[in-house]
Design brief:
This protein is of the alpha+beta class. Helix content is about 40%, strand content about 20%. It folds into 3 domains: about 5-245, BirA Bifunctional Protein, domain 2 (2-Layer Sandwich), CATH 3.30.930; about 245-425; about 445-585, Threonyl-tRNA Synthetase, Chain A, domain 2. Strands 1, 2, 3, 4, 5, 6, 7, 8 and 9 form a 9-stranded mixed β-sheet that branches. Strands 12-13-18-17 form a 4-stranded antiparallel β-sheet, covered by helices on one side. The longest helix is centred in the middle third of the chain and has 32 residues, at about 345-375. The protein is globular, with a radius of gyration of 25 Å. Bound molecules: serine. Serine binds near residues 42, 160, 204 and 226.
């Protein structure tokens, strides 16, 4: 089975059990993102897990592109990936534990052909006043699982979410493949890292909402959220040793062998790093991320630059990334047609960034060698030198850290951070750690800000340029942040008129109307928003009189009067050709 067959087999299995197939959402969270990237299949579904009605119904299935950036520097071993795909099925207040486990067992047995003798499962052992999940264990027993195949763990292992600080979460049951080797010791079990057990699937029983105060309140509805890593599942299906040995990577690896004239076995780590990073970079570019100094663009830049160094390590000197992107596009476009659509942008942006870094990489590496001499024999590189490498040669600090580690040095990261912050007070969004607010904070204030965002979007197109399009949006309880394409600063007069426009709509107290429309109908009505491959699907469209018609998952206020006074607090550049507005609403 190849990757596309596995995606289709998963979707078909759940479709024939009443699930609607929804398309993969963008890697950039669309509505109220408090994280940089979509990190799990459930991210785009948060409003529905909290109780919003989904136009597809109560049973959903998809494959979702995801990026996790916590482990970029671990990439190169057999398991870590920056970009990955998650197969998932959901019940939004429909079926619960019994059906979910039955579906999983049947899929594993009949589609992946994994015998139940090779499975081990876990359940929540109870903690913090939430009881032990004996119900889940009993259901597994009813499917023929023996007691010695069922393990109980606490919150650390058997609890999922919330994705941010607040939001839907709950106990889970994880399904592992057991290679039936003898246990490595008396404590060996699915949570052991010896390799005997490999996780296949995670079924989360989302029945709690974690509040800002840290309490777990029952959700309006009991949901199921499952996730299976496509790459790993493919390993099982085809007996591949690592994810890099699956068909998902063979084309990319072949291309790297061709470009370098080396075999992947000659430098396994470098080949893996390049393959992972360029696959991730291609997908990010395909979703409109642009290399930048902060936010998503900074992660993209880090990936491209790290890949560039490893390309030079395996002896590739030219501007070649585009050739690797081409393989990614041709192999993944069937599942993700946006790659093909954005092919030209992907090519030009990756080549520009590669060239930019190429010009300084060699010089920067030489400078790095000199720095080691200037460091006065100390084993920690001082932050000033590290900052100069960043500032002059564009070396992300993580790259310098890695170079330093190879030579037995450490980096004074704290000192670097201080200098970095001083240099760029606007770089708050530059670290992976920043977006710690709750992803699912669908509180009243974020709802108001969300509707205000739609009006702001309309105001910009009315007052500044009808060609303006949303490039990103982020809402916290305090403010909205809206990125849009424009290659110049807004004037004071424009800012004033935008505020007036938005406040005019608010004062007119216009009802916000939500409709579920066929995709084509939404297009005919000139709704704006991210239209991606939703043909045939029913989509939600929010309209505010004749001011705004936008494709969106919600939630929104009922009437614009609820928003309160709108104020722009900042207008600044976000990336090349992209401006950013921050604004507040309320008293
Ligand atoms: N949200 C869960 C996970 O990411 C299941 O999809 O593992």
């Amino acid at each position: 089975m190849d990757a596309q067959e596995l995606r289709e087999a998963f979707v078909d299995f759940f479709k024939s059990r009443g699930h609607a197939h929804i398309s993969s959402a963008s890697l950039i969270p669309e509505n109220d993102p408090t994280v940089l990237f979509t990190t799990a299949g459930m991210h785009p579904l948060v409003p529905y897990l909290l109780g919003e009605r989904h136009p597809g119904g109560k049973r959903l299935v998809d494959f979702q592109k995801c990026v996790r950036t916590g482990d970029i520097d671990e990439v190169g071993d057999a398991t870590h990936l920056t970009f990955f795909e998650m197969l998932g099925n959901w019940s939004l207040g429909d079926y619960f534990k019994k059906e979910s486990i039955a579906f999983s067992m049947e899929f594993l047995n009949t589609v992946l052909n994994i015998d139940r003798g090779h499975l081990a499962v876990t359940a929540f052992e109870g903690e913090d006043g939430i009881p032990r999940d004996d119900e889940t264990a009993d259901i597994w027993r009813s499917h023929g699982m023996r007691d010695d195949q069922i393990f109980f763990y606490g919150r650390g292992d058997n609890w999922w979410g919330p994705a941010g600080q607040t939001g839907p979460c709950g106990p889970d049951t994880e399904i592992f493949y057991d290679d039936l080797r003898p246990k490595c010791g008396p404590d060996c079990g699915p949570s052991c890292r010896c390799g005997k057990y490999v996780e296949i699937w995670n079924n989360v029983f989302m029945q709690y909402n974690k509040t800002k105060e840290g309490a777990f309140e029952p959700l309006k509805q009991k949901n199921v959220d499952t996730g299976m890593g496509l790459e790993r599942a493919l390993c099982f299906v085809n007996g591949a040793k690592t994810v890099y040995d699956t068909s998902l990577f063979s084309g990319i690896m072949n291309k790297l062998e061709e470009l370098s004239g080396k075999k992947r076995t000659e430098d396994v780590r470098s080949f893996r790093i390049i393959a992972d990073h360029l696959r991730a970079a291609t997908f990010m570019l395909g979703d409109g991320v642009i290399p930048a100094k902060i936010g998503q663009g900074y992660i993209l830049r880090r990936l491209i630059r790290r890949a560039s160094r490893y390309l030079s390590k395996i002896g590739v000197d030219g501007i070649v990334m585009q050739n690797v992107s081409e393989v990614v596009i041709s192999e993944y476009s069937k599942a993700y047609p946006e790659l093909e659509r954005n092919r030209d942008d992907i090519f030009s942006r990756i080549a520009a960034e590669e060239e930019k870094f190429h010009k300084t990489l060699g010089k920067g590496l030489r400078r790095f060698e000199e720095m080691l001499g200037e460091n006065g024999g100390a084993s920690v590189l001082n932050g000033e030198l590290v900052f100069r490498l960043y500032d002059t040669f564009g070396f992300p600090v993580e790259l310098t850290q890695e170079l330093a580690a190879e030579k037995g040095y450490k980096v004074d990261a704290e000192d670097f951070d201080k200098r970095f912050r001083e240099h760029q007070d606007k770089s708050r969004a530059g670290s992976d750690q920043v977006f710690k607010g709750g992803l699912a904070d669908a509180g009243e204030q974020t709802t108001r800000l969300h509707t205000a965002t739609h009006i702001l979007n309309a105001a910009l197109r009315n007052i500044v340029d009808p060609e303006i399009k949303q490039k990103g949006s982020n809402i916290t309880a305090e403010r909205l942040r809206f990125d849009f394409n424009l290659d110049r600063k807004l004037t004071a007069d424009e800012l004033e008129r935008i505020e007036e426009f938005v406040n005019g709509v608010i004062n007119a107290d216009i009802p916000v109307v939500c409709e579920e429309l066929a995709y084509e109908e939404a297009k005919n009505r000139n709704a704006i928003g991210v239209f991606q491959d939703k043909y045939g699907e029913v989509v939600k469209v929010y309209s505010i009189g004749d001011v705004s018609t936008e494709l969106c998952g919600g939630p929104h206020v009922k009437s614009t009067g609820e928003i309160g006074r709108f104020r722009i607090t900042k207008e600044e550049s976000s990336a090349a050709g992209v401006r950013r507005i921050k604004a507040t609403v309320g008293q």
